[in-house]
Amino acid sequence: MTQATSNIPQPPAKTRVMQLAPILFGFFIMGFVDVVGIATNYVKKDFALSDTLSNLLPMAVFLWFLIFSVPTGMLMNKIGRKRTVQLSMVVTGIGLLVPMLSYTLPVVLAAFALIGIGNTLLQVALNPLLTNVVSKDRLTSSLTAGQFIKAISSFLGPIIAAFAVAQFHNWQWLFPVFAGITLLSFLWLSATPLQENDRKESTSTIAECFALLGDGKIFLYFLGILTLVGIDVGLNVSAPKILMERTGMALEQAGYVASLYFVFKTAGTFLGAILLAKWSAHRFYLISSVAAVASMIVLLFASTAAVIYFGVALAGFACANIFSILFSFALQRKPERSNEVSGLLIMGVSGGAIFPFLMGVASDAAGAQWGAVAVLLVCCLYHWGLAAKGR
Length: 391
Fold this sequence. Notes:
mainly alpha
């Protein structure tokens, strides 16, 4: 992974704003990866899949974070950050258009793999690209703005899919809409001149990243990222199924619950920014983890739409700041190995591939969605245990 700091002279303020805008818009493209949650439900319905098979779709997307995160850092060293981001958008755009050419299960899996690869490239390269135009004292606020934009993209996905079904009787029109936005982002960034640092930056290897797992704390934080992303993706996949199973709601209406999750996650992020200025990160993590456990208990027994919505909203609120807290804990644990720690934690995003699959197996075995929720509850209990154990 490349360093997140830069020696590039900062351009004038007006120029920085013009350069910052297309980079921040790139975070909107980053949010497209979350479309896998609602898409999994539509694909399951279209191809009459079991929960186990349908939940392989998130694996097709998120497995690539494990495989490509560190190689992307090496690639970025060779071709630069901007070109790496541009490449990510090309791969993402192709992945979004593939389902419109042929809608079969193998093609959908291939399309989601391309979206996952593109998003891996984007997540590794876009944050360092911010340092080209943002000073160190404004980097945190810029990253927060980027995450807010990503959250907007995430909760718009199910809404656009439902609109496409209502107007065109085909949820797949979501893909060309997102492809067009990706093209716009690519052209905007391409037309924006950005000065990049000419110096070669040190890049970690896969072996160096995994060697850090020998540190017990780093290993626990890595598992924390794995389980957290599993909660994120798994709940977006299972929440519409819970509504349909327990209330008889149609998929077109149930899909909106994924947007509800991201709305409250966005709100939780802003609340966290305020509270973390007054509270210790450890205290906030403990409260968040307890709230996450409570949300899963609610979803385990909820039988009405209102209670299910409440459980999903509480989960989004509770999980909003855990990633940044664990990331900061890990960096403070090994500040001299920040590159390797960052690479390892980004690989932890592959939890979005592992846990939805386990949830599918559990729900098929139980014959009901409470099996999937039980897997999520175990993930939340892990965070409660980690928070209670302390740093």
